[in-house]
């Protein structure tokens, strides 16, 4: 759901109070943002299977990624599969150029019951300048990443697996290259249970 939006077809789109629930449990938040602004160039390039975004600004955002013990996909994977059409191999790949992301009050929760990892990230402010974002090949090259008061918590839990229910999936590993990282007032905790 989206409470309201403003659009300037030439250069930007702002969405307010965005809420996307998990596919299997719509009452569970997958994504929420009080405000999301996209500053783009030439919207007509979408018809040429490319799009250039100068900047994305996020205010008061939450992302909850969850993978159940017997699943091969996360709730985010499922949502993207439902929203995006299957790739047409007869057409060139869609090219998305994203140059900068700025966020204020951002929370990210990742709960992977398959691997037993629970990760929480809280960021007062984050600014990222990107060189390359290759979604098809799972690669992100960040020129500069500046984080104010980040809080990271990683908990590794013992996993008891029922091998009859596990579905083997293709690796979804992302390769992230950060050229310059600045953090101020950071905290990190790691627990093994």
Compact summary:
This protein is mainly beta and 193 residues long.
Structural account:
The chain has one helix and twelve strands. The protein has 193 residues and is mainly β. Strands 1, 2, 3, 4, 5, 6, 7, 8, 9, 10, 11 and 12 form a twelve-stranded mixed beta sheet that branches. It is globular, with a radius of gyration of 18 Å. It starts with a strand and ends with a strand. The model has no long low-confidence stretch (mean pLDDT 87).
List keywords for this structure.
about 190 residues, mainly beta, 1 helix
Write the layout of secondary structure elements.
Blueprint: E1 2-8, E2 12-21, E3 29-41, E4 50-67, H1 75-83, E5 95-98, E6 100-112, E7 117-134, E8 139-148, E9 151-156, E10 175-178, E11 181-184, E12 187-192
Q: How large is the radius of gyration?
A: 18 Å
- Outline: globular
Figure out the total of helices. Answer: 1
Average residue pLDDT: 87
Distance between the termini: 37 Å
